[in-house]
UniProtKB/TrEMBL annotation:
Belongs to the bacterial ribosomal protein bL9 family. Coiled coil: none annotated. GO terms for molecular function: structural constituent of ribosome. Keywords: Mitochondrion, Ribonucleoprotein, Ribosomal protein, Transit peptide. Residues 34-66 form the Large ribosomal subunit protein bL9m N-terminal domain. SUPFAM superfamilies: L9 N-domain-like. This is Large ribosomal subunit protein bL9m. Residues 133-212 form the Large ribosomal subunit protein bL9m C-terminal domain. Transmembrane segments: none annotated.
Amino acid sequence: CPLGIIPEHSLSRLGLGGGGAGVPKHSLSPQASVVVERVWPVPLGRAGAQPRLQPRRHRVLRLLRDGKHRPRGDMELLLTRAVQDVGARGDVVTVSKRLGRNRLLPRGLGLYPSPENIRNSPRNSLKPLELPQTPGITVEFLRRCRLEVGMKNNVRWELSPDIVARHFLKNVRGLRDFGVFLGFPGQIPGFGGFWGPQVNGLDTVRVPMDVVQFLRPKTKRFRHWREQQRQQLESSRERLL
């Protein structure tokens, strides 16, 4: 309805109508209540008599506050397992109530952060020597990585450290906080293999980098499919021979 004007019969199911004899009475809490008012005030009736409602005019209501359909807000949960894009195991995170009540709590991925649950959480139950060495794991992960940067061949370009850093953060998955990127000196004018970014902290890691021709995702998928078909054909030939 325009301008928040609601006919009374549409709210009769909620018990918010004109208070007729057939309308049930509900005790609504402020969190889940719908507050309305009449557009045209009801004139006073005679002494000892009920006010007389006009059939159409006095059954039109104006919506003031809708507490039933407003956003539910956020809630805090203690994660029992690592959840992608949410947090690690044992973290107290703030998520939307829709995500927490529909996904995390029913699947056992989160608990309410009560003092007992926080005290018994996996992270607090571990001894200091048993805690995971996150920097060391990150360095070992970077040693196994290989960066591939795609550049177009129909324009003139030079590969700068900023472009390499952007491709590194985009393509090397599993690395969230990356504030130790050093890059490499100078510019790269053409295609080929190079030693790319360096990571400094516990150790210095040199990640191998390949500068190749840029391909669209559809072309990459087609070439990958064609290579799979070729390998399957060769394997079938070997079995037949």
